[in-house]
Prior knowledge:
Layout: H1 6-19, E1 45-51, H2 56-73, E2 76-82, H3 84-97, E3 103-107, H4 122-131, H5 137-143, E4 144-145, E5 148-149, E6 152-157, E7 160-164, H6 165-170, H7 180-192, H8 210-217, H9 234-246, H10 259-267, E8 273-276, H11 279-285, H12 290-293, E9 299-302, E10 317-323, H13 330-341, H14 343-352, E11 357-358, H15 369-372, H16 382-385, H17 397-404, H18 407-417, H19 422-436
Parallel strand pairs: 1-2, 1-3
Antiparallel strand pairs: 3-10, 4-5, 6-10, 6-11, 7-8, 7-9
Amino acid sequence: MWKFTRRDVIKTTIGAAAASAGGALLPGHVMAQQAPKLEIEKGAKLRLLRWSQFVQGDIDTWMANTKKFTEKTGVEVRVDREAWPDVAPKASVAANVGSGPDIILDFFDVPHLFADKLVDLTDIATYLGDKYGGWFPVAERYAKRDGRWIGLPLGAAGACMVYRKSHVEAAGFKEFPKDTDGFLKLCQALHAKGTPAGFALGNAVGDGSWTYWLIWAFGGKIVDDNNNVVINSPETIKALEYAKQLYPTFIPGTLGWLDPNNNKAFLDGQVSLTNNGISVYYAAKNSQDPKIKALADDIEHANFPIGPVGRPTELHLFSQAYVFKYCKFPNAAKAYLQFMWEKEQYEPWQEASIGYITHPLKGYEQNKVWSSDPKALPYRDTVKNMLWHGYSGQLGYSSAAALNDYIVNNMVAQAASGSKTPKEAVEEAEKRLLRVYKV
């Protein structure tokens, strides 16, 4: 059994690189271009490796849609699932040895690590974009390289502020604050009431993404448009000073929190506010434990507050599919992806997972999942609001290494906890970033 971490992906891939020197039209939409003519290869069979479901409705409907594709085309599709941090390492091995799953459903910028080994998906991406209102800009940022679509964006496991409405009201707030000043005051008030907030400050890739929001909200950046490291700035210092005020309002222990910790703490009643996908609400709503199930009515969601920059600065767990060139049946692979992204399959899948994955195509804003349960509505705009984790530079080896080395997470944790001053924390982050951006 392979045992890799996401960090191993970067090391393996960089080392290898160095060594080698139909759906109906949406209402009111313009006529979509004709679907690509994909002649499926005779005897085609496919293998897909994807991340394990966060909510059961996702995998149940995904498999049902896959069965529909097989019935329609005769193409058998084997679907393997792994815990999401384990997908990228296996994709890296496949890329380097030239065999393995035909299609990978992965996260963030992994396909940029071996873009030359991937099938060009421009034809189906262009078709889907034209048919369903266009792709959100961040989707193109993650899926395109040198003008070519190397991935097909699935969307993002969007994160919102997840909170107990009754506790927020008891703290003196009629609605969730929309700016960072109000957010700090809320956290202070919740702490004073004995119903604190809690946000992951450990090496959590998904739930630690709030640290990127924090830096960007105050105008800080990791790198500029030309990939020059610019983290050491007055704006970043201001963000870290804010984090230092925020941290004392958290429940003890958040410095060691990984991705599962905030879910458990919230459902256990230890915290009244955190950031997470809609899976916390899903878990409460479907729990067999009466105590946990009772939480569902009190759970509400809100988009991340706006900082001094005056616009959304969110980061979410972005997912996309890609196809390796070693695939013997590339047309079948593209046909499968196109089928799964069409409205007839995509919208029921999105509904079954109560909007856990937010769409990358603008046309799916109309999906009834966003109106059938008002608690889901804030998740509708997470892909629209998000930036890419290498903002405002390019995606590739360096941005992936920076993410996988938890440089931003660690910097915020150090400054927030007081183990380093904001100046010391940002200087250490700058040194680490300069090393990875030299690659």
